[in-house]
Amino acid sequence: FGDGTYNADGIKAIADAIAVSPSLTILNLSDNNLARETGYVKATAVQGPSFNVGDRVIYQGCEMIVSKGIDGDGEIKMVNFSGVKALAHALRVNPSITVVDL
């Protein structure tokens, strides 16, 4: 077993497989980064009415949440939760999963 490093697209692919795997009962994704934080990004490259921690913004076509507000260089950090949302949906539609380790 190895440590996984998946971006949001990889986690979405895993979620798609979970949703249609009725024989799956135990899921261990504990060594994966389900919500990846970006590096520092210029706030001017991000769409949003404000850039406070917790605000929803759009960056490169993805909805993200601001995790670190604007610094002295005009940069912010964001977290992409789309993989987590896809995983939550898959767990709702697959009732056979009885154990989840995140």
TrEMBL record:
Taxonomic superkingdom: Eukaryota
Protein known as: Uncharacterized protein
Annotated organism of origin: Haptolina ericina
